[in-house]
């Protein structure tokens, strides 16, 4: 007669599996599954930072060659021309698009920085864009006109973030300070000193910086 071999797992193994299942996040309306839709692959000029607009329609990347590029998610994979915004004058020109398996990706090229771009952030409504660089400047761009509006000069910036009150923003620097700015003034409203090392990141909370 054939023998039926039955394997039993040790109780400790069963308990470990059950504990792992209990610790996993439960999927629901407040905790949805994470899915990667777009990926930067083999960026030839060094991608330092990226950010997405609140409505998910635009993605910005800051690069080591001092450029800032903005992709329109609705146009990914569609052949199109790109526009380049040079410095503060915002002159336009055609640029060769990078190719992917889905086709050519249209993007808007913003040029004006003279050093690597370490941070970029959209305003709450996506109509403005801030970029910070090792050239000791923050630049304010308009995504409607694809042009540079203001150049804020100060310290070597690691990070910049908009406030939910969109005309305010904050910056972080290697000079151990954080600064609060208003879009309509070229000097900071407040300098926050006291850290003993670089301030690498700033974060904005609702109604406050």
CATH superfamily caption: YVTN repeat-like/Quinoprotein amine dehydrogenase
Count helical runs. 1
**Strand coverage percent:** 35-45%
CATH class type = Mainly Beta
Keywords: Repeat, WD repeat
GO molecular function, one term: RNA polymerase II general transcription initiation factor activity
GO cellular component, one term: transcription factor TFIID complex
Biased composition (Polar residues): 81-92
Write the topology of this structure.
Blueprint: H1 11-23, E1 47-52, E2 58-63, E3 68-72, E4 84-86, E5 99-100, E6 103-104, E7 107-111, E8 117-122, E9 128-133, E10 137-142, E11 147-153, E12 157-162, E13 168-173, E14 178-182, E15 190-192
Parallel strand pairs: 4-7
Antiparallel strand pairs: 1-2, 2-3, 3-7, 5-6, 8-9, 9-10, 10-11, 12-13, 13-14, 14-15
